[in-house]
Structure formats: structure tokens, C-alpha cells
Specification:
four-stranded antiparallel β-sheet, mainly beta, Jelly Rolls
């Protein structure tokens, strides 16, 4: 298995794994690169999503996505799930008041979902895309 890193805002590195999804045996899907070295981001979409205590769609699938940045703009912890429903204490944890992650080259082109430990939480971000082929 080849390991490809995903870096968080504080230098954490997560690896693709075939784990069970528990804290001791994490599962993070292996990502494929969608941006060649000379390719540029053609457009960006700034977004904000209200996230509550049930899984909420943050971004829909897009084969044109080349980067996504997610920032927790609330005082509750938010968990991010790639390609499946988000659940508390699973996936990518964004700490309260600014916890963030940028996923770029390779990026995730599937659905992105979130769940928070408190109602009325806010997730903000930027979705960068390339021109459709």
C-alpha cells in the first residue's frame, strides 16, 4: 500500500489506512491527485455551512475540485467525514475556534460531511476548482 499524507494546519500528518475507523486503528481514504504541477485553480467558492448534531453535507462531489479548505468558526468541535455520513469522534477533528485543514494535491473529490458536538455550529471554507475538461 502506498501512503499519501494529508497535512493539517498544525503539521499533523494523516495516512491512508485500511483500519476499522477507531481512534487506535483509523481509516482515512486514499486520495488521488487531480492537479498536475502546471495546473492552476480556475475559480474558488467561499462558503459557510451551519452544522448541527446530525451529519450535514458540506460539499457535494466534484471531479473539478483541486483544493478545499475547512475552518471551524464555532465554539464546538466539528468532525469531518469524507465520502460517508459524519459521526462524533470519527473522521477529521476540527477543534473549536479555528481548527482547520487544507486538502490539496491530492485532494478529495467526493462528498464532504460534517457533524458538531453542539447545535448551530459554523463551518467556513474555500473550494477551489479547475475548468471542466
Amino acid at each position: 500500500m502506498s501512503y499519501k499524507g494529508i497535512f493539517g494546519n498544525e503539521g499533523e500528518k494523516y495516512f491512508a489506512a485500511a483500519g476499522a475507523g477507531t481512534q487506535g486503528d483509523p481509516y482515512i481514504p486514499e486520495l488521488t491527485s487531480s492537479l498536475t504541477p502546471d495546473e492552476k485553480i480556475d475559480s474558488v467558492t467561499n462558503f459557510n455551512v451551519s452544522v448541527g448534531t446530525s451529519s450535514t453535507a458540506v460539499r457535494v462531489s466534484s471531479t473539478d475540485r483541486v483544493m478545499v479548505a475547512l475552518v471551524n468558526d464555532s465554539d464546538a468541535v466539528i468532525y469531518i467525514a469524507l465520502g460517508e455520513a459524519a459521526t462524533i469522534n470519527n473522521g477529521i477533528r476540527l477543534n473549536a475556534n479555528g481548527g482547520s485543514i487544507v486538502i490539496v494535491n491530492p485532494t478529495w473529490t467526493g462528498t464532504i460531511n460534517a457533524i458538531a458536538t453542539s447545535v448551530s455550529s459554523k463551518l467556513v471554507g474555500v473550494d477551489g476548482t479547475k475548468a471542466s475538461s
